[in-house]
Design goal:
With about 425 residues, the chain is an alpha/beta fold. The protein has two domains: about 90 residues, no CATH class; about 280 residues, Rossmann fold (3-Layer(aba) Sandwich), CATH 3.40.50.10880. It has 16 helices and seven strands. A seven-stranded mixed β-sheet has the order 1-7-6-5-2-3-4, sandwiched between helices. The longest helix has 20 residues. It starts with about 35 loop residues before the first helix and ends with a strand. It binds 1-O-phosphono-beta-D-fructofuranose. 1-O-phosphono-beta-D-fructofuranose binds next to helix 8 and helix 14. The site of 1-O-phosphono-beta-D-fructofuranose has 15 residues, from helix 8 and helix 14. Keywords: Hydrolase, Manganese, Metal-binding. Its cofactor is Mn(2+). One of its GO terms (biological process) is DNA damage response. Belongs to the damage-control phosphatase family. Sugar phosphate phosphatase III subfamily.
């Protein structure tokens, strides 16, 4: 993995790389703050997740023992390196330099979460040749969501768009994709909410809306290449795919590259197998409807290469995107615009740090090699790019606006590099 770009003074250094940075401008988020969101994720969300995985699978004794060990390590113990036989032991040994032997709560939140998911997969035998190799530990949760009636309702609601002007469809589908980010299975563990339909939600609830700048990058017939960095499967990926179809068939984009995770991550994050399940769900929707048409067109776009899927290993790395490797940077440099979905991608885009909320978004994305947009519902403490009056109203609302998933944003850095 590459070292941090030398000009990004604010992002945390990749362990093992030369330290060319100056001290961070904003505190990196750790998980040791009493009552903090990050602490609750490690202390509460992760143990619940381990219990849910135990309930969902007929695990054997070795897997239960490995989960017991992970639970104890991650909640009360210190960070231990991967086992001697792990295929990625060296990589994580470098990535975790300075962290091993310390409490999980005292290292960067972003790093600790990522390592937790790596260790969870390892405990279940995901990487080990044998019967559990490649079994998605979150597969049952994802499958139940995809088969659920909310997806049926959301697909049926798309029929309302038929015959509407293209710009009305575009605006509705962008909001559908944005609010789809609320349907995040990890988030549901402790939010108690986010179950309602996110289909074509009309109220904006946006704390920043720069969608006009996004559309101006994508004129009809402009031959754009759009990269979409996906977040969750199921009820988020379906509206993402519907948006992708709209871009392609209205010729706002000539080609789209959809980036997914190379392995299961953050519970519901989309992998290639989730893309396949979602495309099949669309294609098998009631034949005369908008959803089925979308499925057919996307199937064809995959076949002729206008829609491609990538699964770079960096999407499961525990670092901000400012540390992305050259091959990924080159891909994004060639994009007309890259759209990043969701909360985790936002944290990685701007840096998982406690920025002043009025820090300009484009200041934090200056390192990105091309135009970049974030579509995100707010589910963690990180925020940039707010107008001062919006911030004042949010702070005065008494709501947990940063973490409740009730607010969302579209932020765009449209500068060409
Ligand atoms: O990226 P997503 O799916 O929008 O959100 C991921 C998330 O649920 O996971 C983290 C806590 O585990 C938070 O950053 C955020 O709430």
């Amino acid at each position: 993995m590459n070292p941090m770009p030398a000009n990004d003074a604010d992002a945390p250094r990749v362990p093992g790389s030369p330290d060319t940075s100056t001290p961070p401008a904003a505190p990196v988020i750790l998980s040791n703050g009493p009552g903090s969101f990050a602490r609750a994720v490690l202390a509460e969300r992760h143990p619940v997740l381990i219990r849910q995985v135990r309930d969902a699978f007929p695990l054997g004794p070795a897997q239960h023992a490995a989960l017991d060990a992970l639970l104890a390590e991650a909640t009360e113990g210190v960070i231990e390196p991967l086992g001697a036989d792990a295929h990625d032991r060296e990589r994580w040994a470098a990535w975790g330099q300075g962290y091993f032997g310390r409490s999980w709560f005292d290292v960067p939140f972003l790093w600790a979460e990522s390592y937790f998911y790596r260790k969870l997969l390892g405990a279940l035998g995901y990487f080990t040749p044998g019967p559990w190799h490649g079994i998605d530990p979150f597969g049952p949760f994802k499958a139940a969501e995809l088969a659920g009636k909310l997806v049926d309702e959301e697909l049926t609601a798309l029929d309302d768009l038929s015959g509407r002007p293209a710009d009305v469809q575009a605006a509705a589908l962008l909001l559908g994709s944005l609010w789809g980010n609320r349907a995040d299975l990890g988030f549901r563990i402790d939010s108690g909410g986010a179950h309602e339909s996110t289909a074509l939600r009309a109220d904006s609830g946006l704390v920043a809306d720069e969608s006009a700048r996004l559309w101006s990058l994508l004129p009809v017939g402009g031959g754009a290449t759009v990269h979409l960095v996906a977040d969750n499967a199921g009820r988020e990926l379906i509206p993402d795919l519907v948006l992708v179809d709209h871009l392609l068939h209205t010729e706002r984009a000539a080609e789209v590259v959809l980036h997914v995770k190379p392995q299961p991550y953050y519970i519901s994050d989309a992998t290639m197998s989730d893309v396949i399940h979602s495309l099949r769900r669309l294609a098998h929707a009631p034949a005369a409807g908008y959803a089925a048409e979308t499925g057919r067109r996307l199937w064809a776009a995959m076949a002729d290469g206008r829609l491609r899927v990538g699964a770079h290993e960096f999407f499961c790395a525990p670092f901000p995107y400012s540390a992305m490797p050259d091959d990924l940077r080159e891909q994004f440099a060639a994009a007309t615009v890259t759209v990043l979905k969701g909360d985790l991608n936002y944290r990685r885009l701007v840096g998982d740090q406690l920025w002043s909320p009025t820090t300009p978004f484009a200041e934090r994305t200056a390192y990105w090699p091309g135009p970049v947009a974030a579509l995100r519902t707010l589910k963690s403490d990180v925020i940039t790019g707010l107008d001062r009056d919006v911030l004042t109203a949010l702070e005065g609302s008494g709501e947990a606006w940063r973490t409740s998933g009730t607010h969302a944003l579209v932020q765009v850095d449209d500068r060409s590099r």
